[in-house]
Write a structure and sequence with these properties.
This protein is an alpha/beta fold. The chain has 5 helices and 12 strands. The protein is globular, with a radius of gyration of 20 Å.
C-alpha cells in the first residue's frame, strides 16, 4: 500500500511538473494577448486618449518569428488606438553582436517593413532598446524611420489630438545611450500641455520631472516569471522589483511598465504572458 501511494504521489508530481514546464516553456511564450488598462492622470484630458504600447518584441527569439509579428500588428490595429508607441528591443541580439551572424537571423529591415502596416490617426512613434543598440543603433533607427516609425530619442513632438494637445517626448535607452531627459523636454518650454514620455528602461523614471504626466517603459518583461507566494525572482533593474510591471504611482508621478512580447536569456514565461498593452488615458 505504501509503495502504491508513493508511486502515485511521484506520478502526480511528475505530471504536474510536466504541465508546468509545457506552460512555461511553450504555451505561454507562444501565446499573445491584449491587455487594456485605464489610467487617470491628476490633470485629466478633455477626452480619453488611447495608446497602444508595443515593447520587447525580440523578433528572432523562440516563438517570436515573423508570423508572430504579423499577428501583433493585426491585433494592434484592431485595438484602434489614437497613437502607437514602440518602446524598443525589436530584435534579439547579444551585446557583442555575434547573434546577428547566425543563419536565419531576422533583420531590422524585415521587422520594420512589417511594422509599416501599423495604423493610428496620430502616428506611430518609438525609441530603441539595448538589444537594438547592441546590434547597430543607426541601422535599426534608419529601418524604422524608413518604414514610418517616428523615432523620438531625446526629443519631443507636439500632437494635436481629439483629447486636446499633448507632448510626446522620447528618451534614449538608459543603459546604452545618453538618455538625456532635459534634451527630450527642451522643445516643450513653458507650454502647459500634458507630457507623455516614452523610453525603453523604467530605471530612468526617478530622473523624470513632475512636469511629465505619464512615463511609458518596457525592458523588464515583467520578470518573465511570476511565482505564487514568491513573486518575480529576477528583474533586470537596478531597483529590483520596484518597476517590474503595470501602473506605478510614486509621489504623484505616473509610470506604466509594459511586460512586452518576446523573451530574453531563457525562452520562458510563467504567469506573465506576452501582451500588447492598450492604455486609455483619462
Amino acid at each position: 500500500m505504501k509503495r502504491r501511494i508513493a508511486f502515485w504521489t511521484l506520478t502526480a508530481a511528475a505530471v504536474a511538473l510536466l504541465a508546468l514546464g509545457l506552460r512555461a516553456f511553450w504555451l505561454e511564450p507562444a501565446s499573445l494577448t491584449v491587455v487594456s488598462e485605464r489610467i487617470q492622470l491628476p490633470k485629466p484630458l478633455p477626452k480619453p486618449l488611447k495608446i497602444a504600447v508595443l515593447t520587447d518584441l525580440h523578433i528572432g527569439s523562440p516563438f517570436n518569428g515573423m508570423d508572430k509579428l504579423r499577428d501583433v500588428v493585426a491585433r494592434t490595429n484592431a485595438a484602434q488606438a489614437d497613437v502607437i508607441c514602440i518602446l524598443g528591443d525589436l530584435l534579439s541580439n547579444g551585446p557583442n553582436g555575434a547573434r546577428s551572424e547566425r543563419p536565419g537571423f531576422i533583420t531590422p529591415e524585415q521587422v520594420s517593413a512589417e511594422l509599416a502596416h501599423l495604423r493610428a490617426p496620430l502616428g506611430v512613434f518609438g525609441v530603441l532598446g539595448n538589444h537594438d543598440n547592441w546590434l547597430d543603433h543607426d541601422r535599426v533607427a534608419s529601418a524604422m524611420e524608413t518604414n514610418g516609425v517616428r523615432l523620438l530619442e531625446d526629443k519631443a513632438q507636439r500632437l494635436d489630438t481629439p483629447a486636446g494637445s499633448i507632448w510626446l517626448a522620447g528618451v534614449s535607452d538608459y543603459w546604452t545611450r545618453s538618455h538625456d531627459v532635459a534634451a527630450a523636454l527642451a522643445a516643450v518650454g513653458t507650454d502647459t500641455a500634458p507630457i507623455i514620455l516614452i523610453t525603453h528602461n523604467p530605471d530612468l523614471f526617478p530622473e523624470v520631472p513632475n512636469r511629465v504626466a505619464l512615463t511609458l517603459a518596457g525592458h523588464t518583461h515583467g520578470g518573465q516569471v511570476r511565482l505564487p507566494f514568491i513573486g518575480t525572482p529576477i528583474v533586470p533593474s537596478r531597483f529590483g522589483v520596484r518597476f517590474t510591471a503595470g501602473h506605478i504611482v510614486e509621489g504623484g508621478r505616473h509610470l506604466f511598465v509594459a511586460t512586452g512580447i518576446g523573451t530574453s536569456i531563457l525562452p520562458v514565461r510563467f504567469r506573465v504572458p506576452p501582451a500588447i498593452a492598450v492604455l486609455t488615458i483619462e
